Amino acid sequence: MAKSTGTVRIVVDACKGCELCIPVCPPRVLVMSRAVNAIGFRYPELLDGCTGCELCAEICPDYCFEVYRGISRDAPSRSEEIPA
Amino acid sequence: MSDLKRAFLEGGHALAEAAIQAGCRFYCGYPMTPSTEVLEYMARRMPEVGGVCVNVESELEGINMVWGATGAGVRSMIASTTNGMSLMQESLSEMVLGRIPAVIVNMGRGQGDYNMCTRGGGHGSNPAIVLAPSSGPEAVETAYRAFHLAEKWRHPVMIFGDFLLSHTSETVTFEPPEDTLGPLPDKDWATDGARGRPPRLLTSLGMRITDAPDGSPLPDAQTRTDVTAPMRLAVQRHEEIAAAEIRVETHWLEDAELVVSAFGVPARFAQYAARLARDEGMKIGFVRPYTLLPFPAETFRRVAERGLPIAVFENNAGQMVQDVRLAVEGRAPVHFIGGISMDSSGFGVGPHIDALHILQRLREVYATRNAA
Amino acid sequence: MATEMQKVFTRSPLLGTNTHSLCPGCGEPNAIRVLMENIEEMEERENTICVLGIGCYTAFAALMEIDCQQAMHGRAPAQATGVKRVLPDRLVFTLQGDGDMVTEGIQEVIHAASRGEKITAVCLNNAAFGETGGHMTATSVVGQKTKSTLGGRDPEVHGHPIRLPEMLQGFEGVAYVARGTVHTPVGVKKTKKLLRAALETQRRGLGFGLVEIVTMCPTGWFVPTADGPRFQEEHLLPIFPVGELKRPAGLDV
To answer: So what's the ipTM on this one?
Structure first.
């Protein structure tokens, strides 16, 4: 499992499926979903290996990303596990 | 506050001074006969009271600067003329919808702008309040009244004058009229930086509305957009303004057999002609609308209900006469005794602006007053 | 398993909480985001008034948590002048597109610049009238296909694009001029710095500032959404080069 030193919380229903975030992610840990969101677009899903570099958040026109960085001990990087 | 209380001034200067004494602190203008003198006076006087006067590069820029300054909470004014007014129509229209209480002065060339003033603002559907002073002293009162009404109703106000008003010198006294001494609502719409309060949006596009369609308040985050709301509100506001602010001057209606009507400075000539006619034994009445919008339709209707013919004198091809015809709804004959009358400059001081000329026209119509 | 994650990026409160309905892949929201972040970081939220023009970005009047005035198409620099002249200690900026500022409103921005009005004019340049569906503006590039230049902009018929920053930089009253791009994260971050310099120029009363930001408009360019950045890089940025064109001496931001 790739080490994640960061993670993102994605506001899935704000995404318009523009896919600008996919190629800007240096470790390439964003992939578009198969499912569609509440407004009918596919949206990015996060794989392991996020470094919290913020490049996805910089490019996203719909402000879908909240970015977290820190020390992780190989924990899963899904948004459910982020403390408030 | 200025200590200038009484002076002999040409109308444009008098109006400018009155605006300053009424608290106007932002003015812009573009030189154009016959409104140029307002700009000249403001250029000298505004800096004396710590205000701002900008000689703009176009009327289009001017009206929008006034929009910005008024929206920032400062009493602001622009004066222009006929063609320059045409340039300003888009923003003037939107300022009605956006509820920007600015004062706009049209020193027109003749009176052919009546339709533009009373229909034009609003892309033809939502005009400003229109006041038509007929003398220097009345222009002074009108300046105070314009700012007062603008802020009372949060609605632009237009002052419609002409070459004669702008360039005739009369003794004027600077005193706010009685009806402008009452309290005004707070400027809780002004965009002057959101200090210690939620941010505000001044717009004519119906965005960020904080009321539900039934008028009840929405919770903060649930603002909505309704592009037709500003139009509907403007229509409603016009009805409320009409119920409260109509001003009209009438004389000799009790025994009248013919009523002459005019507005602005030409009305003084028409009134004088009416007096000369009465000296000759003609029973002439006189009606002078001061508010062109809201129009004093009720006054004309009551005249018409008595079957009295109405003769309208104006320096154009017949515009206010149409509003008179609408008001009387066919109950009495309406005659047009005006016409376009300019000198060779085209600025509106033609040979028909003359009491003896109007008197002759009145004699002609009076002679036909009982015809079937 | 414990994670100690620190939130390092979140949406600025000055953008509110609502979503917007601009197109997928539009560059304007990126430009507006860094503009709002600057205002928040400069702690000027209570002191700022934005005058918006008419374009897709007009929708942001419903999102921005600062005082705003809506202007008619092209007229924002004059309206902002009115605000700044009566409230000289506030931060006043315009937010306009190229259709608004460089096409309809070229007179307003030129005169505001020549008068040295102490405002900041922000131009979101996507070389098209986006909101009406993709039509030629004064900045559309030669060869660009739009609904009013079906075969591509032909200089013989439609002339050449206007480069407004280059045009205004020589005016004495103009203190800061720059052009940025938001087609890459690095571009977005650099644009944020340019906007900060422009706002700081105003805060110090140094004169007129203009920042033109080239923004993606795949809808108005009739290209696939994800192709926006590439189209921008290939066709627009060679004509509209990024960088600072004018900066007040001694400005240290």
So the answer is: 0.94
